[in-house]
What does this fold into?
Amino acid sequence: MTTQPIFLIGARGCGKTTVGQKLAEACQCAFIDTDLILQQRAKKTIADIVAKEGWPAFRALETRTLQSVAAPDSIIATGGGIILAPVNREFLRENGIVIYLKAPVSVLAGRLEAFPEASQRPTLTGKPISEEVREILTQRDALYRETAHHVVDAACEPDEVVAQIQRALAAAHTSVQPLKSATAG
Ligand code: ADP
Ligand code: MG
It folds into this structure.
């Protein structure tokens, strides 16, 4: 039996990487992080790519990365801006189960201030973190919601977020359906 990939979406700091790793362990699935794969393939950090080639170049790489990593039996943590491109939103919805890890600005800003990881998270607006998070979430929340099949509360502890996702998947009986054409590579 083939299981569709699970895509985790949400703003920086919502826990896509942290929760994704735990969920993969719990489901005995592979864990894939598009930001990490992209950086490994480019042999550069996201900050370097953006500084040298600009955000549009990074976004193009992100789309290629997403399409190449989607595979059955995997949990895929995506970059916070992946939902900006309509082609990515369509790909996510059609090729897997999409989970939005939703958390309020105060929670996201608190985590990012504690663990900035600037090489992976170059500033998007040049503004202080909490201001940037508020602005970005205002722009993107509707896109995260329209792309997601399920929304979970990502402000609680990682294990609880994992449990919410497992309950959502079980309730929806999400299991089969192989990937459509745009998979491998
Ligand atoms: P993302 O991949 O969505 O940007 P990360 O998983 O890298 O987010 O998490 C950002 C920071 O917040 C990390 O330092 C992580 O340990 C912490 N974190 C993530 N999820 C939670 C959570 N549910 N509760 C508390 N801290 C968390
Ligand atoms: Mg991450």
User: Anything to note?
Assistant: Residues 19 and 157 are 9 Å apart (CA to CA). The chain has a mean pLDDT of 91.
